[in-house]
Write a structure and sequence with these properties.
Protein name: Sugar ABC transporter substrate-binding protein
CATH topology of the largest domain: D-Maltodextrin-Binding Protein, domain 2
Number of strands: 12
Oligomer: single chain
Largest sheet: 6 strands, mixed
Keywords: Signal
Radius of gyration: 22 Å
Distance between the termini: 21 Å
Structural class: alpha/beta
CATH architecture of the largest domain: 3-Layer(aba) Sandwich
């Protein structure tokens, strides 16, 4: 598919990007020593500087083994989706890029990436090296194959402060929503007697639209409503979605276990720091233990996010998170790009990543089964979550837009909750009706 055709395809699903980006490394031919690949890498560690330093160890090793040089650009997640769309629509991007798993169903049909047919799969070591869950989440079962390869997997986990739990007389982490709310109330206290709450039961980045979309996906499923119905029609305004939004917003307005100032937090790292500082007792996060360990903070435990009780819908606590890799269709160096992909997914690289980025789940099955990985207590919890209560984002061309629209709607509702102290079901319904109407208009 040429650049013009890809642009038309993206416009047809309402997600065309507008940014014109730096082009691929130019010049075909020549030896591997003459090739410099451009790689858009993901932000997986507490800071981009840490990512850059670690990725350099990987690319230096790859260059030493192959002679192929790699220039790495680490991308924050906040606007990365639009950046990828801009690359696809313009035909100008890197040789290899990372994608979030929730974007796979929207991005792969664009024609912007190299298709992994049998020959290309063989070039990276074959599909059998991947865990089945990661392979499926990357589109491995798609008709006609996939253009995304799983790199790392992850889930959203409940982290709790063990010392605060002990002080409150809570012996085990909650497993149901009513238990969670009850525990959060016990943990929301004025510790210094000045009349102001300074330890909150729950922490959440309520100003972070992307995190809201992940929460709404899981708790919408729990309440019996998915992003789309069985015919693929948007249902962002379904009753279960309203229920999911209502129960979370009530944590701020009615239950008063979530600080209204949370509406200003736009990154998960803000909440992780609050946890480390002792300002909150519970958070729901993906890979948050990386930040805890990096700060030398050890007073935490990990468990599955709670389930509603009663449970009208599906037992889903998290989307299947993680990062997939793709080769840009316009690359001048497809063979070298595939060689780099093979390096990124092999057992040795995946083991090295698991040791250095605590909290990720390798997608290479041999690495995921290695005792050095499985002995980590958070890894044990995460693999159980992945096996039992994780679900992939919907396979729908509009999924990327759905994620953006419902996230923005909840971010706005959280801001209202923080400033006005109340959000009615009618307010929630109206916001989700508007989000759903915008999604329907893109069909």
């Amino acid at each position: 598919m040429n650049t013009k055709s890809r642009l038309v395809a993206l416009l047809a699903i309402g997600v065309a990007g507008t940014t014109v980006l730096a082009g691929c490394s130019g010049g075909g031919g020549g030896s591997d020593e003459d090739v410099t690949l451009q790689w858009w890498a993901p932000n997986l560690m507490p800071t981009i500087a840490q990512d850059e330093a670690y990725y350099k160890t990987l690319t230096d090793k790859f260059t030493e083994e192959t002679g192929i040089k790699v220039e790495t650009q680490v991308n924050a997640w906040s606007d990365y989706y639009n950046k990828i769309l801009g690359a696809i629509s313009s035909g100008e991007g890197p040789d290899v890029l990372a994608s979030g798993t929730t974007w796979v169903s929207t991005l792969t049909p664009s024609g912007g990436f190299l298709q992994f047919d049998d020959a290309n799969l063989e070039a990276i070591g074959g599909p059998e090296q991947f865990t089945q869950t990661a392979w499926d989440a990357a589109g491995g079962q798609n008709e006609g194959g996939t253009s995304m390869i799983p790199w790392v997997a992850g889930v959203t986990t409940m982290f709790y402060n063990t010392k605060m739990f002990e002080a409150a007389g809570i012996t085990d982490p909650p497993t149901t929503w009513p238990e969670f709310v009850e525990d959060a109330k016990k943990l929301t206290i004025d510790t210094d007697g000045d009349g102001e709450i300074d330890q909150w039961g729950f922490g959440y980045p309520a100003g972070f639209a992307q995190e809201w979309s992940h929460t709404m996906f899981a708790f919408g499923e729990q309440n019996g409503t998915a992003f789309f119905d069985e015919d693929g029609n948007p249902t962002l305004n379904g009753e279960g979605m309203v229920d999911a939004a209502d129960q979370f917003l009530q944590l701020m307005t009615t239950e008063k276990v979530l600080n209204p100032a949370s509406a200003e937090l736009q990154q998960m790292s803000d909440v992780q720091q609050q946890f480390i500082n002792g300002e909150i007792a519970i958070l729901f996060g993906s890979g948050s233990n990386i930040s805890f360990d990096d700060a030398g903070f050890t007073d935490y435990g990990a468990a599955q996010i709670v389930l509603n009780d009663p449970l009208p819908g599906e037992a889903v606590t998290t989307h299947i998170a993680g990062v997939d890799m793709a080769v840009f269709a316009e690359t001048d160096h497809p063979e070298q790009a595939l060689e780099f992909m093979k390096f990124l997914v092999n057992e040795d690289t995946q083991l090295d990543m698991a040791k250095n980025i605590n909290g990720i789940i390798p997608t290479n099955s041999a690495a995921a089964a290695d005792p050095e990985v499985t002995s980590n207590p958070v890894f044990k919890v995460n693999t159980e979550i992945l096996a039992n209560t994780a679900a992939g984002f919907p396979d729908n061309l509009l999924t990327g837009q759905a994620e953006t629209l419902i996230g923005d709607a909840l971010k706005g509702l959280a801001a209202q909750a923080a400033t006005q102290g109340t959000v009615s079901r009618a307010d929630i319904q109206a916001a989700l009706d508007e989000a759903n109407s915008q999604l329907e208009a893109s069909q």
